[in-house]
Specification:
Number of helices: 7
Order of helices and strands: HHHEHHEEEHEHEE
Strand content: 15-25%
Largest sheet: 7 strands, mixed
Helix content: 40-55%
Length: about 210
């Protein structure tokens, strides 16, 4: 799996047209295999079971990213400090790129939203899984810098785990050994197995979602 992860990054970074073709084929195949279960996890009420009392009191909920969320999500990325992207640069963050990802059936995307009574709803976190039709997925996430330490990451991980379990996906990712908060979060939401250390020093991990 680590080899496939590395190959994917090489194609994405150096052979953009070939990567685009791979994405299109994979998206179609993923939809054909998972279409029935995708409808279930795209229903936002599916994630109500991961909300605890505190989150309900603070009007925080999980929703799948739709075309209507693209502008808000792009603004969310623009509002984050440069330091937020030290360990997080999985794709481009402009509206055009996000719209393309939303249309990709295999690219699973969720946001954590804080519902404000007297103001517009606020995106406070984002988590994604780049998935493949043979049943594997690669995860990444970012929490709004203003809401770190508030349980947003834990909520998003629980939601993504719930969806992954429904689709029966094996979930992988990379975590920098210097990113202690991500390591601690992963351990607190099911745990991880470190498979190997990548060439750049990051851990290639398998998420435990059961």
């Amino acid at each position: 799996m680590a080899g496939l992860y590395k190959l994917g990054h090489i194609l994405r970074d150096n052979f953009s047209f070939l990567w685009y073709c791979v994405e299109r084929v994979n998206s179609c195949m993923f939809f054909l295999r998972y279409s029935g279960r995708l409808k279930k996890i795209q229903n936002n009420s599916f994630y109500d079971k991961v909300l605890n009392k505190k989150e309900k009191e603070h009007h925080i909920y999980i929703k799948t990213v739709s075309i209507e969320d693209v502008y808000t999500l792009s603004c969310f990325f623009e509002s984050q400090p440069a330091s937020a992207f030290t360990f997080f640069r999985p794709h481009e963050f402009d509206a055009k790129s996000l719209k393309r990802l939303v249309k990709d059936s295999s690219f699973l995307m969720w946001i954590a939203v804080k519902k404000n009574i007297n103001d517009a709803d606020e995106t406070v976190g984002y988590i994604f899984q780049r998935s493949y039709f043979w049943g594997i997925s690669y995860r990444g996430y970012i929490t709004d810098y203003k809401y770190r330490g508030c349980g947003i990451g834990k909520l998003m991980m629980a939601a993504a785990n719930l969806a992954s379990k429904e689709l029966k996906l094996k979930v992988y990712g990379s975590i920098s050994p210097y990113n202690k908060s991500s390591i601690n979060l992963a351990e607190a939401t099911g745990g991880i197995d470190i498979i190997k250390t990548l060439d750049n020093g990051d851990y290639f991990v398998s998420y435990k979602i059961d």
